[in-house]
Amino acid sequence: MLQNVIAGLQGIIDHAMVGHFVGFTANAAIGVSWQIILVVIVFISSLFTGMAVLVARFAGANDPAKVNRVVYQAFLTAFGLSIILAAVGYFAAPSLLVLVNAEASVKAEALPFLRAMFMGIFGMMMFFMLSGAFRAAGDPRTPLRLGVTMTVLTIAFNVILIPIFGTIGAAFGTIASSTTVAIYGIWKVTRPDAVIHFERGMDMRPDFGIIRSLFRFGLPTGVQGIAMNVGGVLLLRFIGSLEHSAAAQAAYAVGYTELFSLITWTSVGLMGAAATIAGQNLGAGNPERAVQGVKVASRYGLGVAAFVGAMFLLIPGYLLAVFGMTDPLVLSLGRQLLGFLSISGLFITTALAYTGGLQGTGDTRSPLYISIISQVVIPLGLCSLFQAVYGLQAFHIWTAILIGHATRATLSVVRFRQGKWRGIAVDIEPARP
Asked: What pLDDT digit, counting tens, does each position of 315-329 carry?
């Protein structure tokens, strides 16, 4: 949770700086760019979910050799995919910005930012992979150190680079910090005292048995992430169709992408914790403790969501002012959105805790189906309905987001309580001679 709070603050600081130095157009540019980047990162990161399922189960069964083999193969796969992604993303960036219906002024700021982020994506991929591996193996402190270091470096770089380069300076700072931390993290796993250890002479050849297991458990999560983020991209198209689209996109980028991350990022941390506790205890033959871990994670999340939601209701103007939001229309839309999100946070944190429980035990398909229904079909369907019947307004979109989150929480809790995850088996083939 602490790591993700710090990571969320990094994004808030980025938005605050570009908002002051460039204007709300830059906020919108970074917001739409990150929505696109997350679609790709979440899919590639799906193999990290598969890795976490295997690592947690083997760690619970006290089998460090299998833990090391799984993480090493995840590292090799992520390295190859990050190279492919950099090339494809650079050339596809203009078409992707057309897809989100960005205004010309927003697109001009977003294109160089988006291309730079794709070209430097290796560092972020390695950071997410290593953080997930250490956490699933039972070492949450190393990911915290890596996350704090990356955040501090990003802030330091951006304080220098954003005033000089504008919006793209935020990309340069993120790339420099994530690459630095990734190099350190790779060195860390070569140390014999690490909970995960890469030894000299490890086979550089892909182990397709392990890779298949990574994607067997991870691919549903990747498709889930793509579905959710494609849903977000299509939601941006609805926002882009509003009368004052740039102002609405800026309010969405700050309110939903950044301020709401105070809830979602902490909840993602709890989701990872719930997944680790559930997977390790199932591997150790103690499913009832897995259930209790998920319940505790959910209660923590509700406490955070209630506190942050109260701030959204009581001091929305002050929160938006941090990002240089002075335009009256943007402020009005931002306050309206934060009112909806103050309630929505209670649902999303519950959904994420129980999603972690499902994924950690190996049930990665149920969250996929739940997310498609709640994060794609319902909000986009409601927006289409409102557009056809009433003429779409911003509060219609905020309502659709809230209903989607409520649906996701309800379905996630019901599915976990059914308990079918108790019978999921996890293993890999013996190491090659």
From this structure: 988 888 887 777 888
